[in-house]
Design goal:
This protein is α+β, with helices and mostly antiparallel strands and about 220 residues long. It is built from seven helices and six strands; from the N terminus they run H-H-H-E-E-E-H-E-H-H-E-E-H. The chain has a four-stranded mixed beta sheet, with helices on both faces. Strands 1-2 form a two-stranded antiparallel sheet.
């Protein structure tokens, strides 16, 4: 044993030093309580509708890529409009109906009509091209200006969320290209017209004019 530890009072002195040191350490670096656990991140899609969505008909609460630009487009921008929704193809016996659809759109768009085109290769494989090729064909052949949406690779038309609702509410599934649905301004009343109904046919045009005459919901 060293002489230092044998000296009287050394043990008590060491004990006092240790006590003081611990007290100083506690003051300068207090013991921290455990931080509360953070809540797990929520999923990327909110189930709480926004103020805009609350005014948007369920049929239009979807975002799809524009055929012409490739950019995402919310269909809610067409709420309050009368809609003609049509599945299209570039190599069909009814492809010429593009001309009548575009004429209808240009004639009535200022009164609130919008034609929405959905290219599909489901019927007779008559729309095999890329989205860029389809857009170019529509523009250069028929001067199409009405909004169209990209052909979804690998999925059928009936899986498109817009068509899921159209079919559910009318019990009418397109049997061929250029089947037409006419939707009122509120997105509630939907009429279904087969491929052989021409866009210029009097009964078809009359149904659109009646809906255009109705005032948009305030």
């Amino acid at each position: 044993m060293s002489n230092l530890t044998a000296l009287p009072g050394v043990g008590r002195t060491r004990g006092r030093i240790a006590t003081v040191a611990f007290a100083l350490a506690t003051v300068s670096c207090p013991i921290m309580a455990a931080a509360p656990a953070l809540p797990p991140p929520t999923a990327g899609h909110s189930t709480q509708p926004s103020a805009v969505d609350a005014d948007c008909p369920a049929l239009l609460r979807h975002t799809l890529n524009s055929l012409q630009t490739g950019q995402p487009q919310s269909l809610c921008q067409y709420r309050g409009k009368v809609l003609v929704i049509v599945n299209t193809a570039s190599f069909c016996g009814y492809t010429y109906q593009y001309e009548g659809l575009e004429a209808l759109y240009r004639k009535y768009k200022d009164r609130g009509l919008v034609v929405l085109g959905f290219p599909s290769n489901d019927y007779g494989s008559q729309e095999p091209g890329t989205n860029q090729e389809i857009a170019e064909f529509c523009r250069t052949t028929y001067g199409v200006q009405f909004p169209m949406f990209e052909k979804a690779a690998g999925s059928r038309l009936v899986a498109n969320p817009v068509y899921v609702e159209l079919i559910a509410r009318t019990s009418q599934t397109p049997k061929w290209n250029f089947h037409k649905y006419v939707v009122d301004r509120g997105g509630k009343r939907i009429q279904s017209f087969g491929s052989d109904v021409e866009p210029t046919q009097s009964g078809f045009v009359s149904s659109i004019e009646k809906l255009l005459a109705e005032k948009p919901a305030s």
